[in-house]
Amino acid sequence: MTSTGSTSVEVLDRPRLPAGRGPLSAAVLDQLAGRAASIDVGGAEPNGEDLQLALYLCYELHYRGFIGVDDDLEWDPALLSARAVMEARFLAALRADLPGGDDVDQAVADLLAEPIDGTGVSHHLSTEGTIEQLREYVALRSLYHRKEADPQAWVIPRLQGQAKAGLVTVENDEYGAGRGARMHSVLFADMMVELDLDPGYGAYVGHAPATVLAEINLMSLCGLRRRLRGAAVGQFAVIELSSSPASARLVKAAKRLRCGPATERFYAEHVVADAVHEQVLRRDVLAPLLALEPGLAADVVFGIQGSQVLGHRSADALLAGWHGSTASLRRPLPAGHRTPQ
Amino acid sequence: MIGGPARRVVLTREGPLLMEGPVEIVLDDGTIVCSDRPVVALCLCRRSHHYPFCDTSHRRRVRVSAEPTP
To answer: Which residues fall within 8 angstroms of residue A227, CB to CB, at 6 or more apart?
Structure first.
C-alpha cells in the first residue's frame, strides 16, 4: 500500500510511571523498577484507587510499557500472579453490581434507544460546560483514545469467520484504513494539541481517578482473556453503538466553545463512522459470533452491562466534580492558554 | 457492460442502506458527495443532520425516567 501519511518524524512515545496510590500499587511499582517486591493484594478494595492503578500498571506492560521499565516484565510471574488475584476481585465485585442475564437482543435494543432528557457528560458539555471542563474530559478520555481500538485488537485471533472479518472492518476504520494520520488515536492527539493538552500516550494516568482506570482495565482484562472474548465484543458494541449521538453533542460543544477544527473533526468523524460501525457490529460481528457460539450470550451481556455501569460511574464522578461536590481529577490540569474562555 | 462481481447493497429494517465504499453519491441538486469508507451507511429516513450519510437520527427516542436504571 502506498503511504500517504504524515512525513513528520515519529518519536517512541511511552508513558512515565505514575505515583503509587497505596501499598499494592507501590509494590507493583517497586517490581517494575527492578526492586523485587512481594506483591500482596491483601485487602485492597476492588474499585479503589490502589487496586485499579496496580491493575492498570500490569496491563500497560502488554501495550507499550513504561519509560525505564524492562520489557521482559510483561511476563513476570510475580506480576501475572498478583494480576490474576486482582482480576478475580474486580470481576466478582462488578458481577455483583450487574443485573446479568443472556438476552443480547434486549441489551442491544436498550443501547439503541436514545434518551430525550439525557443528563450525561456530553449533554452537559453541549449546553453549558466550560472549556476547562471539556479539557478535563478530553484529558481523562485520552487514556482510552490514545490507544483507541488497541484493547479490541486482542480479540481478533479469538474469533473466526464472519465475526472476525466484521470486527477487523471496524478496527481498520479506527486505525485509519492504512493512513497513519487518520488513525482515531492520532486525530485525538491532534485535538489534545489544539486544546493545549499533552498528547503523549498515557500522559494523564496520574490525573485519572479509579473510575476512569476501571473502564480501561475491563477492556484490557477481557481483551487479554480468551475466555472473556464475548465480553470484549460486548464492550466494543457499547462503544460503537453509543458513540454516534454522544459525538454529535460533543461537536456542538466544540463549536459553542470555539475549540477549533481538530476538536470538531475528531467528534464529527465519530458521528458518521460509528453510525456505520453500529451496523457492522450488530450484523457482521454479534450475529455471526452468537450463531457460532451461542454459549457466549451471557458473556456478551456481561461486557455490555459491565461497560455501561463503569461508564456511568466515571461520568457521575466527573459531573459531581463539575457541580462542585468533589474533585473531578486527582490533581488539577495546568491551565491552558485558552483559559479562561 | 461493466465487469466484476455484483455490488451488494443491504437494506436495514429501520436504519440506513449499507454499501461497500468508496462511493460517489449524486444528490438531488447535482452535488456529488464522496465516501471512501469500507462500508458506507446512507440515510433513508431523511432525518440525518449529515445527509446523505446516516448519523443514527432514526433511533427510537425514550425518556430516561422511563428507563430501568442499570
So the answer is: none
